[in-house]
Amino acid sequence: MKTAIAERIEDKLYQNRYLVDAGRPHITVRPHRSPSLNLLALTRVCPAKCYELNETGQVEVTADGCMECGTCRVLCEANGDVEWSYPRGGFGVLFKFG
Known about the structure:
One of its GO terms (biological process) is nitrogen fixation. The protein is of the alpha+beta class. The protein has three helices and six strands. The protein has a two-stranded antiparallel ribbon with strand order 1-6. A two-stranded antiparallel ribbon has the order 2-5. α2 packs antiparallel against α3 (71-77). The chain is globular. It starts with 8 loop residues before the first helix and ends with a strand.
């Protein structure tokens, strides 16, 4: 009889490694007076929690830990809120399990 082991997604994500390209983030947020609804949504839907509101009400991105899933591209790139490009070769997420 097999024993089921409950694994949390956070435990699996912890196994991934990230090589940060210091000074060259692959994601930038366009300067804004007040964040669009899509930017505000990113603070909740980004699976890596890269987006957050700062103390002045602006949405900021921390690309360290980005899983390059494309959620921000789908949600915000068309209206210009976010600029996204692939990290340079050798940088970005290194998936341990697939």
